[in-house]
Automatic annotation (TrEMBL):
A Pfam family recorded for this sequence: zf-BED
Domain BED-type: residue ranges: 22-77
SMART domains, A to Z: ZnF_BED (SM00614)
GO molecular function terms noted in the UniProt entry: sequence-specific double-stranded DNA binding; zinc ion binding
Protein name per UniProt: AC transposase
Upper taxonomic lineage: Eukaryota, Viridiplantae, Streptophyta, Embryophyta, Tracheophyta
Length: 236
């Protein structure tokens, strides 16, 4: 084989005639088929080394070259770093200029956090929380507790509308359960939960109302409170 043989190379193109024999080995993600003077070779995409690869020759030697021989192959990324990058994107950090800060979205997430963890509205007045928020995202304009209250009520109205429309579409009956809660100042509250089977035969649950129940908590008072909550939804 002459020194100029590397100049006589044909890159094999995949045609409709040979598409029936697809190369499914992962090795072909790193090699391409070339033909030199009628002989089939696999050329490494990174170091351009050519290895014999006639039909039926197998790909073990290709895997070995990629894993142990090729010095120019891309190194595998630590999966933990991949998770960190993903988390950074979710948390709002600007990365390569692709993230655009959204004040309204940040406010909604703040309100959702307060709802989820039962924080007080005054959390937005805490110096430590303000300093942390500024460090995390300097573009965020901290809101007042009254604005936070309004954002929470908006989430409530949006969720209520969503479930109101959902309950209006289902064809099955809705089972109702109630639970009594007592606050730290000894005030009683009733949680009214609806249970139903959706079109996929999956049990769904949603809190319909969470309302104050005046004392004394007699059967008549509890019944009136339950009827009031159901009439408010107009789904009784």
């Amino acid at each position: 084989m002459s020194k100029d043989i590397s100049d006589i190379v044909e890159i094999e193109e995949t045609s409709e005639d040979n598409s029936k024999r697809k190369r499914t080995s992962e090795a072909w993600n790193h090699f391409k088929r070339v033909k030199v003077e009628g002989i089939q070779f696999a050329e490494c995409n990174y170091c351009k080394t050519r290895l014999k690869a006639p039909a039926g020759y197998g790909t073990t030697h290709l895997h070995k070259h990629y894993e142990k021989v090729c010095k120019k192959r891309p190194r595998k990324t630590d999966i933990r770093q991949s998770f960190l990058k993903t988390n950074k994107k979710v948390s709002g950090e600007q990365e390569l200029g692709t993230h655009i800060f959204n004040q309204e979205e940040a406010r909604r997430e703040l309100a959702s956090m307060v709802i989820l963890h039962d924080y007080t509205l005054s959390v937005v007045d805490h110096i430590g929380f303000r300093r942390y928020s500024t460090c995390l995202q300097p573009c965020f304009n901290m809101i007042s507790r009254n604005t936070l209250k309004g954002d929470i009520l908006k989430i409530y109205k949006d969720e209520r509308t969503k479930y109101y429309n959902l309950l209006g579409k289902i064809k099955c009956r809705i089972a109702i359960t109630t639970d009594m809660w007592t606050s730290s100042n000894n005030k009683g509250f009733m949680a009214v939960t609806g249970h139903f089977i959706d079109d996929n035969w999956t049990l769904q649950n949603c809190i319909l109302r969470f309302l104050y129940v005046p004392a004394p908590h007699t059967a008549e008072v509890l019944a009136d409170t339950l009827v009031e909550s159901l009439m408010d939804w107009n789904r009784s």
